[in-house]
Amino acid sequence: MSGKVNIRALVEEILAPLAAEGYEVWSVEFVKEGRDRQIRVFVDKEGGIDLNGCEAVSRLLSEKLDEADPIGEAYSLVVSSPGMDRPLLKDTHYARYIGVPVEVSLYKGFEGRKKFAALLGEKTAETLKVTPIDVQTLAPDGDELTVPIELVSLVRLLVVI
User: Fold this and answer.
1) Helix axes 7-15, 51-68, angle to 10 degrees
2) Long-range contacts of range 144-149, CB-CB < 8 Å, 24 or more positions apart?
3) Disulfide engineering: 153 pairs with which of 101, 105, 113, 142, CB 3.0-4.6 Å?
4) How far apart are the C-alpha atoms of 158 and 119, rounded to whole Å?
5) What are 24-44's pLDDT values in tens digits?
6) What phi and psi, each to the nearest 5 degrees, are found at residue 11?
7) Where are the domains of the chain?
8) CA-based nearest residue to 107, from 157, 155, 152
């Protein structure tokens, strides 16, 4: 295959038909670790993903990538779950988890907070609304904040045990 290929877009295109079976591509990373290249694909499925589901996605993707041969160097393919503390990356992720406890990390402090637990509110192109909570009790710990989106470094689901 000639020219520069967007690996993330190619992987999402290859896996798109799996949506009919309840699979969702959470995210795709194409990274270099030391001298090695790695394609990391995080998938989820309605009701949760298990090892068999990850293996099925890996087999399909490996076969299709071998056919397309988009990468001119050796790489490894890793398919896994995004985990319980999954990062919210797409607008659809944010919309799905409104009202759910999350951990918010900011590039710099805002209203005296830089990394905190909160109930997720609405996300727009400009802002993220969150209500800070006490991480132990999950009770509100302040008023709703409207954080400028450019300050948001990472939002991930808060694992509550």
Assistant:
1) 120
2) 145/110, 145/111, 145/113, 145/118, 147/104, 147/106, 147/110, 148/110, 149/123, 149/124, 149/125
3) 105
4) 9
5) 999 999 999 888 899 999 999
6) -60, -45
7) 7-80, 91-157
8) 152
Per-residue pLDDT, 4: 65
Instruction: Name 62's Cβ contacts closer than 8 Å, sequence gap at least 6.
Output: 77
Amino acid at 122: E
Name the architecture of domain 91-157. Answer: Roll (2.30)
Q: 117: which 2 tokens?
A: 């637990």
For 27, the token pair is 């995210």
Among all chains, which residue has been given the structure tokens 């790489």?
75
Tokens of 92: 């659809």
Bridging pattern class, strands 101-110 and 152-157: antiparallel
CATH architecture label of 7-80: 2-Layer Sandwich (3.30)
Question: How far apart (Å, rounded) are the C-alpha atoms in residues 20 and 13?
Answer: 13
Q: What is the pLDDT of residues 59-78, one digit of tens each?
A: 999 999 999 888 878 899 99
pLDDT, tens digit, for every residue of 97-112?
Answer: 999 999 999 999 999 9
**CA torsion through residues 32, 34, 38, 40, sign:** negative
